[in-house]
Structures are given as structure tokens and as C-alpha cells.
Specification:
133 residues; alpha+beta; 3 strands; single chain; 3 helices; three-stranded antiparallel β-sheet; rod-shaped
């Protein structure tokens, strides 16, 4: 059933505030009235048509919009997880490369390993203490 805009009018019912009535129709002769606040009468036919379709959508599929939001967020979370995993792999590779680089520098005597560095630092501290005494 393909709906199209039929007309709009203000409808006055006894004891109620006036409402804007939008009549949606189809080629088979079906009529689908949708009601809005009185102020909606000032909107264009195209705007009212979109609002009416949205109202039908919400009335007939109340959880669909919510489900679409959850689906959107689930996709976003999945993408973030994939990126996080990629970043972890990059960090692992960088850590391994750095370790190999430091080992190469140690082999060539450019830097000292931690134990030797601690021994040198301890030795320097002993010398400083002796000089102060």
C-alpha cells in the first residue's frame, strides 16, 4: 500500500481542542487519517506527509527505531573492538621491535643492560659517598 498526501484540514470535535487532520490516501481508495496539534496546519503538505508517515511508522513499529539504534551502536562497538585488537597487535610488534633494538645496542656495547647499569649506578653512588666523607 503506497500512501500519498490527500489533504489537510482543521477538525473540530465537541469538547476537544481543534486538531490538524492529515488524510493519506492510496490508489485503491483507502483513506488513513492522522491527527496532529492545531499548529501543524501551518506546515507544508510535504512536511505533514513526512510527519504522518513517521507517526504511522512509530505506531506500527514502536521498537523498530530503538532496535535500529541498538544495531547502530552494536556495529560501532564491534568496529571499536576490531580497531582495539589492531592497536594491540601494533603495540606488540613495536614492543618486540624495541626489545630487539635494545638487545642489538647491548650486543654492540652502545648501552648497558639493566644489571650492569644498576652496578654502575651503585658504584657511582659509592664513589660520591666516599668523596663526601
Amino acid at each position: 500500500m503506497r500512501l500519498k498526501f490527500g489533504n489537510k484540514s482543521l477538525e473540530y470535535t465537541q469538547g476537544e481542542h481543534p486538531k490538524t487532520r492529515v488524510l493519506l490516501i492510496n490508489d485503491e481508495g483507502a483513506m488513513y487519517p492522522i491527527y496532529f496539534d492545531k499548529e501543524a496546519i501551518d506546515k507544508s503538505d510535504a512536511e505533514l506527509f513526512e510527519l504522518a508517515l513517521e507517526k504511522i511508522y512509530q505506531d506500527n513499529f514502536p521498537n523498530r527505531a530503538e532496535d535500529e539504534k541498538f544495531e547502530f551502536f552494536n556495529k560501532a562497538i564491534l568496529e571499536v573492538r576490531k580497531e582495539t585488537e589492531k592497536n594491540r597487535e601494533i603495540a606488540k610488534t613495536m614492543s618486540l621491535s624495541f626489545t630487539q633494538f635494545v638487545e642489538l645496542l647491548e650486543e654492540r656495547g652502545i648501552v648497558l643492560d639493566d644489571e650492569e647499569t644498576e652496578e654502575v649506578a651503585d658504584h657511582e653512588t659509592i664513589i660520591e659517598n666516599q668523596e663526601q666523607n
